[in-house]
Design goal:
Keywords: Membrane, Transmembrane, Transmembrane helix. The chain has helices spanning 2-15, 35-46, 56-59, 77-82, 90-93, 95-118, 120-144, 147-167, 170-176, 181-210, 218-239, 277-308, 324-359, 361-386, 388-417, 422-429, 431-453, 463-481, 494-503, 518-521, 530-555. With 560 residues, it is mainly α. It folds into 2 domains: 25-68 and 84-247 and 493-554, Growth Hormone, Chain: A; 270-490, MFS general substrate transporter like domains (Growth Hormone, Chain: A, Up-down Bundle).
Amino acid sequence: MSNSNGAATATHIAQAGLLSKERIVAGPGFNRWLVPPAALAIHLCIGMAYGFSVFWLPLSKALGITDAATCPADMGFFARIVSASCDWKISELQWMYTLFFVLLGCSAALWGGWLERAGPRKAGVVSALCWCGGLVISALGIHLHQIWLLWLGSGVIGGIGLGLGYISPVSTLIKWFPDRRGMATGMAIMGFGGGAMIGSPLADALMRHFAGPASVGVMETFLVMAALYFVFMMAGAFGYRVPPSGWTPAGWSAPTASANAMITAHHVHVSKVWGIPQFWLLWGVLCLNVSAGIGVIGMASPMLQEVFGGRLIGVDAGFGSLDTAQLAAIAAIAAGFTGLLSLFNIGGRFFWASMSDKLGRKNTYSVFFVLGIALYAAAPWAGKVGGSALFVGIFCVILSMYGGGFATIPAYLADLFGTQMVGAIHGRLLTAWATAGILGPVVVGYMREYQLGLGVPPSQVYNTTMYILAGMLVLGLICNLLVRPVAARHFMTAQELAAEKQLAHEKVGSNGGVALDAAQLAQVGHGGNPLLVVLAWLAVGVPMLWGIWVTLQKAFVLFH
């Protein structure tokens, strides 16, 4: 009987499409450590969204090349977006950045359920087509000098690719690493934080290569990066595998309710999460943690320069009293500060997510909030009397927890809502990120302008902002402390779970049981060709090491 079932299963898989979920169910001998590099391959590419600011200045001179071709003062908004005779403002180009993260949250929420059923390979391919296709459309927009094509290409279509690519590995990694949920998702989401670390210097080098008397080099750079990213992302998408139903790591068993009430063995359907209080508490937790951190990221460079002014170079003078050469010197130091923050943002994603496997997700977030409140409250004092080293150290820790919050939240969701539809639930939760992407920068930017308008010295304009951000973390702490295990009535029944697994094309029998026998399941997740594992990790590790080296060189100026 088992032989006939196996033959039928093999026939069904052979008839399935190349991108279907049935084709990527892992068999005996597949090593689970091949999955994180596949996820990193996609996240390192789409993470370049963080680095798009490298294109703003060149694109603002796309026609004038050396100086911007200014639009007439009386030209209206709609005339500007279709004009091919004058250059774009940086504020207009920055709409791409806003659209990235709004569309990321919306697409992840809308298509998260489809992803769970279609599988990570199909989602990864669609992500590659959208992200890289968006870059090609943007290149066309530069060629025709139509900014709306950049908004449509990179902003809207690319933003959809961001959302699908971001959540594509989450559910798969959690199912492959139930024993190390935090570490597994931390590895992938670390890649999203590191994408700009690789992409920005690469884009800068390409623009310098292609720049000439008739071009700033951005169009050509977009086309080259689209091709490179497409190859890398497709390799990642085709590297995805999902574990067969019923598989668990050797020697691991699911925690019992008595051992850890915060980790469930049951599963919530994505359609029910809008009505579950714990979902909205975690929505607030993520939104408030990200709002505080993302506001700092956007203002890191001017903040350091305005708070310390000439003290950064040993001159007892405020920011407004410095000459051109001194301003250039402290700008270089501030660029190093920004680079250092990016390293802590990336490292924090892996460190804190891995620590959450030991501390627990709720305790880890409590550390974020309690420590963050203390650090934000101490920042004004550090800026006044503590010296730049202490100030820099405070924000490095803050940014590590900002990144750690992103990397820890998928495992937190899996603990509370189960693993069956955690990718789709994570997608809906990312609407909190879209909200924070507006809230955080608005709070920091508005308060800065408001304080300057009141005549507050530049060295003190961020003090009130720091206390406001600390207050936001207090609210986040309250949300986190209110999180309790999900009530039993919200979980799927055994019949509903079996039906969902069938819809998700999991390798199950007609009665919902596993199609692989125990001996076959025991051979899944380990073994295989060790050289293949090494090569997969080198493919993503070498670019990351190069990006870290370039960033460290920029940050080195802080210590001189």
